[in-house]
Automatic annotation (TrEMBL):
Keywords: Signal. This is Lipoprotein. Residues 1-23 form the signal peptide. It comes from Stigmatella ashevillensis.
Length: 446
């Protein structure tokens, strides 16, 4: 998927009101501070905010601010210690300093007194998890990327190890589960196991369902969604079997030229499968997820109604959908797929972020990536050079979304449920690009 417009996280946050060029600073009585955009800081690192009073004129006898006060509350709505600095010699400028100790939204209320304006804004504190994973560099580019436990890379339609191709499947879609590599092409499904040195073919299943739109994989089971049917393939230790296919879509339906995108996506909770139809192919042009249940080895449509939702799908995992609710409100939400249907769980509001409709890359999972081009320092005195990669993470225990920082200096950044990767901006001593930088995503925190 395409990354959104840069988010603006930085350690010295400038919450500014327009300041005319004047020989001496002054403010107009009763001026209100503008509501500043949401910003981002890193948990455990000092943050410094610079505030400027509202200025509309340059009359030397106008009243100036004489103090600055501020209140900051954390994600639990409890007060967070914030220190203010106000110099009467520069009464239109003040600074705030605090150290966020919790990930999540912090709310700021600051006011110049008796004039100068009020600023209210949300500040998101992201976890710095960059020290929990070490980047690897691959000498090739990948839109779709997965890794086996033994270290083979499923890159687009090839399986690579140590920079060389083990196998290539020009018409195939790949999915990795543990050390198993599933390969789907328009005529057959193959199951391979990574031995550590090669791929061993363990099963083949012919089919006539055509190209794969979406898929879900485990080491012993593969669910494939095709243009009109869904099928389930299982491995019994000796070979592959199929429980049969189920028609899920009308026989006609083609996406408008130039738009692209999968016809549908798969989510799953236990034996309940969810199929999200592209709204451009829906008779009502609406967003909905329809339930199917496992019956005698194949998925069949249940009598339950489909779950409707508003917005555009920006990412998907087996357990749910990442949805951009509206381009104007800029709300990113996570909707969990359950046996009772699709349930909205948490929403994150990020002012200044623009995202784009999901573009398929062949990934079984796609997680949104937010990028920032603003400088801010990292832990242990490191200087973090933009752009920075930030990922939304849904925490089911607290029913909230938090942001996690993983790496900097990447462009064309992509992410799945297990990996983050992008092209590095650094170059080798010979002047060639450094290649693809890949990080394993740290495990979810309890």
């Amino acid at each position: 998927m395409s990354p959104g417009r840069p988010l603006s996280p930085f350690w010295a946050l400038a919450l500014l009101v327009s300041l005319p060029a004047c020989p001496s600073p002054c403010v107009s009585e009763g001026a209100s501070g503008q509501s500043a955009p949401q910003e981002l800081v890193l948990v455990g690192l000092p943050a410094k905010l610079t505030l400027m009073a509202g200025v509309t004129g340059c009359e030397p006898d106008e009243t100036l601010p004489s103090s600055l006060s501020a209140e900051l509350s954390g994600p639990d709505n409890l007060p967070v210690e914030v220190r203010t600095a106000f110099n009467p010699a520069s009464p239109t400028v003040g600074t705030l300093q605090f150290t966020p100790m919790q990930a999540g939204r912090h709310h700021l209320f600051a006011a110049f007194d008796p004039v100068g304006g009020i600023v209210q804004t949300d500040i998101h504190a992201a976890r710095d998890r960059s020290t929990e994973t070490q980047p690897l560099t691959l000498p090739f580019g990948c839109d779709s990327l997965e890794r086996t436990l033994k270290g083979a890379w499923a890159c687009n339609s090839s399986v690579m190890r140590d920079g060389s191709a083990l196998r290539q499947f020009p018409e195939g879609r790949l999915a990795v589960a543990g050390d198993v590599v599933w390969v789907m092409d328009p005529r057959q499904i193959q199951r391979y196991e990574d031995t550590g040195t090669d791929l061993e073919l363990t099963g083949t299943w012919p089919h006539t369902e055509g190209a794969v739109e979406s898929l879900l994989a485990t080491p012993t089971e593969l669910v494939t969604l095709h243009a009109q049917t869904v099928q389930r393939i299982t491995f019994d230790g000796t070979g592959l079997t199929s429980g049969g296919t189920t028609r899920w879509a009308p026989t006609t339906g083609t996406l408008p030229p130039g738009l692209g995108g999968p016809k549908a996506l798969l989510t799953r909770a236990g034996d309940t499968l969810g199929i999200t139809l592209n709204p451009l192919l829906s008779a009502s042009f609406s967003n909905e997820v329809c339930p199917y249940t496992l019956v005698k080895g194949r998925f069949e449509r249940t009598p339950a109604a489909c779950s409707a939702f508003n917005g555009t799908v920006m990412g998907f995992e087996p357990g749910g959908l990442w949805i951009q609710e509206s381009l104007s409100t800029q709300m990113l939400s996570f909707h969990e797929w359950t046996e009772a249907g699709l349930i909205p769980r948490a929403t994150l509001s990020l002012s200044g972020v623009q995202t784009f409709p999901l573009i398929p890359t062949g990934q079984p999972t796609v997680v949104p990536v937010l990028t920032s081009h603003q400088s801010f320092p990292g832990s242990m005195g490191r200087t973090l050079h933009p752009p920075h990669a930030l990922m939304p993470v849904y925490e089911p225990g607290q029913r909230r979304i938090v942001l996690e920082y993983l790496n900097s200096g990447l462009i064309d950044t992509r992410a799945s449920a297990t990996l983050l990767w992008g092209r590095s901006l650094t170059v080798t001593p010979g002047g060639a690009p450094a290649g693809l930088r890949v990080l394993s995503r740290p495990p979810a925190l309890p």
